[in-house]
Design a protein that fits this description.
The protein has seven helices and no strands. By secondary structure, it is mainly alpha-helical. The chain has one domain: Globin-like (Orthogonal Bundle). The longest helix is centred in the last third of the chain and has 17 residues. It is globular and about 40 Å long. It starts with 19 loop residues before the first helix and ends in a 6-residue tail after the last helix. The structure holds protoporphyrin IX containing FE.
């Protein structure tokens, strides 16, 4: 039951979303977007996976996304190499949990009126990268 699952697709192959997203929207927007995502997670069926301080967790995630989008390498500076799959290993991430997670992110993008022109590449990244975070078999 607690056996580690390795997604057959392997690590994500898609490039990071373009830097233009960050230069157009700015860091405070990205921080608010991740806050909205964590607010959604806190009200979701997978809320118990997340720490009580959702604001702090949202900021750690924002540090990662700002770095991913070609901004300041906040995440690596504060926490070391991203190694995201390894960092997620303590949590039981099934594909069902991933779908809930993606739904929360989608609602955060709606709420923040994420520009339509950037949405496909951003969602492509979320879809592909989150598939690689799955580390337990469903059911
Ligand atoms: C695009 C996919 C994803 C990205 C970029 C991402 C990013 C992150 C980052 C940056 C952290 C903080 C790591 C740390 O400071 O140690 C984190 C933590 C975490 N993630 Fe993810 N994650 C993704 C997918 C998922 C999925 C699909 C789930 C579960 C369904 C998940 C659950 C968690 C949990 C439980 C934590 C620990 C608590 C927290 O700090 O929020 N993540 N994630």
């Amino acid at each position: 039951m607690d056996e580690i699952y390795i997604p057959p697709g392997g690590p994500p192959q898609s490039p990071p979303p373009s830097r233009e997203i960050l230069t157009t929207l700015g860091e405070p927007y990205i921080r608010s977007l991740l806050e909205a995502h964590y607010e959604e997670l806190g009200q979701s069926s997978i809320a118990s996976m997340f720490p009580p301080d959702l604001k702090e967790a949202a900021n750690r995630s924002a540090d990662f996304f700002i770095q991913l989008l070609g901004g300041q390498p906040y995440f690596s500076q504060k926490y070391g190499p991203p190694r995201m799959r390894a960092r997620h290993m303590p949590f039981q991430i099934t594909d069902e949990a991933r779908q809930v997670w993606l739904g929360c992110f989608g609602r955060a993008l709606d709420k923040m009126e994420f520009p339509a022109q950037f949405r496909p590449e951003f969602e492509r990244f979320l879809t592909d990268f989150s598939a690689w975070m799955v580390n337990r078999k469903s059911g």
